[in-house]
Amino acid sequence: MPLLSGLNPEYNIMHKFTLEILFQIIGIGSASGLIYKNNQLLVVGDNSSYLYEYTIENKALNRHPLTENPSENIAKKEKPDFEAVTEFEGKIYVFGSGSTEERNKMIELDAQTKAVTATTDLSDLYLSMQSFAELPEGDLNIEGVVRNQNEWFFFNRGNGAKGKNIVFTVQGKNLMEEFNIITNEYKLPKLKGIRASFTDAVLIGDKIYFLATAENTNSTYNDGEVLGSLIGSIDTQTMKIEFTKKITDTHKFEGLSLYKETDNELTFLLCEDNDTEELKASVFQLILRK
C-alpha cells in the first residue's frame, strides 16, 4: 500500500507517486546501494565487505567477497564503508565513502562472474575533491556514483559541518591520474527543519535521478534521527535540478535503481539503511509518474 503521495512545492512541478515495501532480504544489513538487472539485485552494505547477489524469483542470496578476509557487521572505525555501486561496460564498481582514510577504495568486478578484477586506492582523487570544493577534513562523504560514456558523477552527501551537497563531475583517462574535476553544489529542501543530503543516484538517459535523506546530525561518521527522504532529478546537460519530491517522513533510503520504465511512469527499487546490526534489508518499490 502507498506510504505517501502528493505534491511537493519545490520547483513547482507535480510528480505523483506510490511507495510500498516489495520484499525483505534476510542476510543483508545496512544496505547502502543496489543495482537491478535480469531479475537480480546486486547490493552493497556499508558495514560489510561483500557484494550480495539476490535472485528475486527463488530468493537465493549469494555473497561475493570484495576484500581479503571479508566479513559482515564490521566495527564502524574499521569498515570500508562501501556506499556506492554502479555498472558500466561489463564492469561493476563499488566505492568507499572517503569519509576516513580507511574508506578510499574502489573495487572493480567482472559483471558476469562477480570476481574482483582490480582494487584501487582513490585517496588522491578524494583529496583533490576535498581541496577543490574547500571541504574541511571529514566532510567528504561519497554516497552515490554514476557513469556515462565520458564522465563519472560522484555525489557528496552534505551531512558534515559545512553541509555541502556536491556533485563532482570527473573527466579524464582514469580516476587515479590525469583527471579533471568540475563541482556543482546544490541546496536541497529541508525536511522537518533539517536540510536533506544526497544518498544515491542512478543515470537514466540524460537525467540523473537521486535520493536524499534528512538526518539530524552534522557528522559524516555518526548517525542521527531520520526525518525523511526525497527523490529528484538533475539534467546532465545543464546540471540543474529539475524537481524534488518528498517520498517518506520516516525512512532512510540509500540505494536507488531503475526497475521498469513506460511512457508515463518510472519504477524504481530502493533499499533502506537500518543503521543496525540486524541482517535484514527492506526493498521498496517507488512508482513515479513522469
Give your account of this protein's structure.
There is one protein chain. By secondary structure, the protein is mainly β. Helices cover 3% and strands 54% of the residues. It has one helix and 22 strands. It has a four-stranded antiparallel beta sheet with strand order 1-22-21-20, with no helix packed on it. Strands 2-3-4-5 form a four-stranded antiparallel beta sheet, with no helix packed on it. Strands 6-7-8-9 form a four-stranded antiparallel beta sheet, with no helix packed on it. The radius of gyration is 17 Å and the shape is globular. The two termini are 20 Å apart.
Structural category is mainly beta
Q: Characterize the overall form.
A: globular
Q: List low-pLDDT spans.
A: 1-12
Q: How many helices?
A: 1
Major sheet: arrangement of strands: 1-22-21-20
Helix and strand pattern:
EEEEEEEEEHEEEEEEEEEEEEE
Computed CA radius of gyration, to the nearest angstrom: 17 Å
- The total strand number stands at 22
Report on the biggest sheet: 4 strands, antiparallel
Mean pLDDT: 91
Strand proportion, as a percent range, falls in: over 45%
Give the helix level as a range of percent.
Answer: under 10%
Instruction: State the end-to-end distance.
Output: 20 Å
